[in-house]
Write a structure and sequence with these properties.
Layout lengths: L2 E4 L4 E4 L26 E4 L11 E4 L8 E9 L5 E4 L2 E6 L4 E11 L5 E4 L5 E3 L2 E2 L1
Antiparallel strand pairs: 1-2, 3-4, 4-9, 5-8, 6-9, 7-8, 10-11
Pfam families: Peptidase_M1_N (PF17900)
InterPro entries: Aminopeptidase_N-like_N, Aminopeptidase_N-like_N_sf, M1_LTA4H
Protein name: Aminopeptidase N-like N-terminal domain-containing protein
């Protein structure tokens, strides 16, 4: 598909022709980010974390609530780190430390969240974990 990046509006524009109003499509976008150029992702060095052993990354996005989508995600991280997202974790591959997520309910883009770090959790009940 042809596309362009609108630097002024910080948006990706993908041109799709001949779609009806009720069409459903899937678009896969492969990308990588830089900890010096990405403003939606915040990075803490290992020295800024409680145990000072591993860095921590989290998203803090702002966008229009009028743009909603579902998503799937496949995220690989270093061993000993955990990935959390604003979708359901559907799979985890121990050999590659790859986490798989799916969000079937269309949500605004600013609610798509991710966090990666040496995270711990505690179960308060069978349905509640902090």
């Amino acid at each position: 598909l042809s596309f362009q990046v609108d630097i002024e509006r910080e948006s990706l524009i993908i041109k799709i022709n001949d779609l009806s109003k009720d069409s459903i499509i899937s678009i896969i976008i492969y990308y990588s980010i830089s900890n010096t150029k990405c403003t939606a992702l915040q990075w803490l060095t290992k020295e800024q974390t409680a145990d000072r052993k591993y860095p921590y990354m989290f998203s803090q996005c702002q966008d229009t609530p009028g743009v909603k989508s579902t998503f799937t995600a496949k995220i690989t991280c270093p061993k000993l780190l955990t990935v959390l997202m604003s979708g359901l974790q559907t799979k985890y591959d121990e050999n590659t430390t790859t986490f798989y997520f799916e969000q079937k309910q269309a949500i605004p883009s600013y609610l798509i969240a991710i966090a990666v770090g040496q995270l711990v959790s505690y179960d308060l009940s069978p349905r509640i974990r902090v």
